[in-house]
Amino acid sequence: MDAKERRVVVSMATVTAAILLSGAASLGSNVLVVRLDAVGSLIELVALAITYVALRRAKAAPSDDFNYGLGKLENLCGLLFAQVQIVYLAVFVWLAIGRLGEPAPPQGAGWGVLLYVYGAVVTGLMMRWSAVLNRESPSPVAQSLWRGYQIKFWANVTTGTVLALAALFPDQPLTQYLDPLNVLALCTLRLRNIHRMLKESGRDLLDAAVDEHVRLIILRELARRFDAYDDLLGYETRRSPGATFVTIHLGFTADRPLADVFDAVETLTRSIEEHVPGARVSIVPHKANLPAMAEMEPRRETA
Questions:
Q1: Are 241 and 72 in contact (CB under 8 A)?
Q2: pLDDT in tens, 217-226
Q3: How many CA atoms lie within 13 A of 8 on its CB side?
Q4: Is this prediction's pTM over 0.85?
Q5: Residue ranges of the domains in the chain?
Q6: Are 169 and 175 in contact (CB under 8 A)?
Q7: The domain over range 212-290 is classified in CATH as 3.30.70.1350
Q8: According to CATH, what is the number of the domain 3-205?
């Protein structure tokens, strides 16, 4: 079990605990976030279980049917998390608008504060833990977990604050509107989170090229060993979770020894893979569209 799988398993345990706590809190409370957390966490638990199975499958070695492996299953999992967030967003907006039309004073706010303070501490720790994973091993799943815990942390903080204000000022009419306004504020965070998850997960599914920083590293290594080949015909890159595929087309003149061609391919492959983490480099030799070196030497005039 690798680091991402361990994070998913721990997240499943955390979400299960959240379901139990949210379910207990919702029995005596009419606060929207409290009631929705239990149902939303149940949907998230199903998404995490599917993600765990997909991560196990994504580790399969390349085959004749899938030459590049199944790494893009992680991108599909990222899209799955985005779809769960879309369901959250639609339900939250619908209920918040309804509550604004018919405001009601929050009930069961007293002991709900304690639950959400505890939830803020736990999700804060999980957020930092997921941030380390995303920094050390970036992938759609790691980014989705990290962003998901960011939303949960701020949801716990703001909901705990709303419940505390409702408990301290139960007779104030303004407290009736804090709950739906809190839900709408969380919806803006979820909308931003959905956009980022769709952008990051969908980019690799569309075989987008690597970032400019990685492309500059590839060009730098090619420039450092410019004398090992005769012409650069082009290169293509594509990303997959945990791997960066690079295909380089180099030209060699007819008078260059075959041993030198093999040595250039091996040297450049090793150099790029050392400087680009997770790179899988393929160099395709071609006949250069240049005259041979002997033809380029100036002719000596005879007396």
A1: yes
A2: 999 999 998 8
A3: 28
A4: no
A5: 3-205, 212-290
A6: yes
A7: yes
A8: 1.20.1510.10
